[in-house]
Structure formats: structure tokens, C-alpha cells
Amino acid sequence: MSGFDVDRLVDALRSVRGEWRDAQRRPREPAGREFPSREALAGAIEQLKGALFPMRLGPSDLRHDGEDFYVAHTLDAALHTLLEQARLELHYVGRHAPRAAAQIDGQAREAVRAFGAALPAIRRLLDSDVIAAYQGDPAAHSVDEVLLCYPGVLAMIYHRLAHQLYRLQLPLLARIVAELAHGQTGIDIHPGAQIGSGFFIDHGTGVVIGETAVIGQRVRVYQAVTLGAKRFPVDGHGLLQKGLPRHPVVEDEVVIYAGATILGRVTIGRGAVIGGNVWLTADVPPGASVTQAGVQNAPAAGEVFAAALQ
Fold this sequence. Notes:
Layout: H1 6-23, H2 38-52, H3 54-57, H4 67-93, H5 101-117, H6 119-136, H7 143-149, H8 151-167, H9 171-185, E1 188-189, E2 194-195, E3 200-201, E4 208-209, E5 214-215, E6 220-221, E7 226-228, E8 249-250, E9 255-256, E10 261-263, E11 267-268, E12 273-274, E13 278-280, E14 289-291, E15 294-296, E16 306-308
Parallel strand pairs: 1-4, 2-5, 3-6, 4-7, 5-8, 6-9, 7-10, 8-11, 9-12, 10-13, 12-14
Antiparallel strand pairs: 13-16, 14-15
Helix pairs in contact: 2-4, 2-9, 4-5, 6-8, 8-9
């Protein structure tokens, strides 16, 4: 590092960190890490992927006679990592109202036990997503190809795991897992989104699904689809109100083609088809077909508006 005043830079960066912590009224933690680790969670999710699909996403030298041993060892390691990360999140969340370490540890253990118990159900949901991708894409030659290659399936593996963490009141861990998937696939699914079985994201790049979206069964979406919010209400202090239902409800067997943008707490009825590049901010009746040119197979009185993206 000759020629660089590293000591001066260290001092300046320490000062900036101190200003940030003081502004946030954040206490200094002398005893180790304060926040969950992206790297630790990335490793745990990789292990969980292998435990869920050992012969496809596990180690290349795994054989069937060692499958259960590998799953047991891998699950134990992944769940212990999650336990430590859950402790960190709960400690961070409760920093303004400190609790006993035993209380935090008990809550973290309960959450991670519940997460582990949900893994068989998560595997079944993922099986339905893999089958939906295979059946919905004529270019897919096998379910193995779908599982190994399709970014939409990879994103759903992460989402099913992240959503369970979200349900167990570990939203920071859930969001980190979701962003790991976002970085790998270009698909941005908030862990709070509720997604039914048999969900297929084809191609996937640029898909955005918001926190309060509710998606039914056997739904198919294509690249660059957005299920977003139309407006962001504020409270009396001008701050954004959090947690309000603000994203679409998509009922069973809906197809949404590339580039469509659906905003607000609208309902897309069962079996509807939303065409490419449609901008939509109102309900769509069941079975309707919405394109840039208009609406077909919908009641004349239905307030459905569609226009090309500008």
C-alpha cells in the first residue's frame, strides 16, 4: 500500500460511520456482528437447495445410497446457520427494547424448527412449479432440464424459502434471500407475496412482484411483467404507510404476457389473459382477454382499461 495514506482513510471512514450511527441512534456493538450476513445466508440457501433436490442440486458425486446421509448432514448445517442468523435479526429488531438472550434464543429456535418442518411442503410446491414449467414450455425436454436451467424455477426455490421465513416473522432474513435470487436471475419477488402452486415464470428477466400480491394456482407470467403498486399513501407526518394491500390479486389459471404492467389492488379474474405491453389499473373479469387494442369476452360495463406502454 506504499504511497497511500491508509491510516488517514481509516480515521475518516471511522468518523463517517460514527456520524451515521449517531444519526440513527444506533448503539455500538462491542461483542461481534450486529446484523445477519448475506454470505452466511447464501451458503445456507445453497445447502437447502441441495437438501431439497439432492440428486439434481446436490454434489456431483452423490449416489442414491448416500442420499439420506447427505440430506441429514446438509440440513443440520443449514438450520444451524439459519438459527444464528435468526438470533442476529431478532437482536437487531429488539435493540430499542432489549430482551434476555434466552428469550431471543427461544424465539429463534422456535422459528427455525417451524421452518424445517415446512420443508416437505415447500418441496411439494416446488415440484408443482417444475411440472408447470415443463408442461408450459414446448422447448423444455425434461423436468430435470427445467430444474437445472430455468431462472424462473430457481427464483421460485428462493421465494418459497424466503416466504416461509417471512411468515415466521424473520422479514430481514427473508428479504436477503429474495435479493440473492434477484441478483442471480433478474427476477424480483418480494418474500411477502403469496403465490399458489404450479407457478411458471417463463424467461423471467425483469419480472417484479410486490409484497402484498396474491397469486392463485397454475398462473403463468412472462418476462418484464410487473405486479406493482399504483400509489403510496402517507400518514399524517408524510411518511409512507407500510403493510397496506397495494398490489394485484391474480386468480387461478391467469396468463400474463411479456411487458405487461398491472398496478394497484386490482383483481385479475380466473382464466383471464393479459396481453403483452398492456398497462392495467382496474379489475379484469374472469375469462376476459385484455390486449392493447381493448378487451374481449368481458361485460360491456366492466371498467377495464388497457393501453400500450409509452
